[in-house]
Amino acid sequence: MAEQVDAPVFRHYQMVVETMLQTMTEILTAAGFTVRGSTNDFAPLTLEILDGPHGASPWSSS
């Protein structure tokens, strides 16, 4: 591969993914979820949902 890891396209991708994760975290937190960045080395750039909002949600069966 002739492309360098520090090429502009990779830096842009990283910025987009980090911004999306931050935005998703803010949205989920505002909706009552407990969220953190993944601690799984095999799933980088993902989120872990630790707890859901209290009370019934439209998609739950309870």
Give an account of the 3D structure.
With 62 residues, the protein is α+β, with helices and mostly antiparallel strands. It has one domain. It has one helix at residues 8-30, and strands spanning 34-37, 47-51. The chain has a two-stranded antiparallel ribbon with strand order 1-2. The longest helix has 23 residues, at 8-30. The N and C termini lie far apart (52 Å).
Number of domain modules: 1
Mean pLDDT: 84
Q: List low-pLDDT spans.
A: none
Order of helices and strands: HEE
Q: Mind telling me the C-alpha Rg?
A: 16 Å
Biggest beta sheet summary: 2 strands, antiparallel
Tell me the total number of β-strands. Answer: 2
Given the helix and strand composition, which structural class is it? alpha+beta
Task: State the shape.
Answer: elongated
Q: What proportion strand? A: 5-15%
Summed up, the helix count is 1
* Helical proportion, percent range: 25-40%
Distance between the termini: 52 Å
Name the strands of the widest sheet in spatial order.
1-2
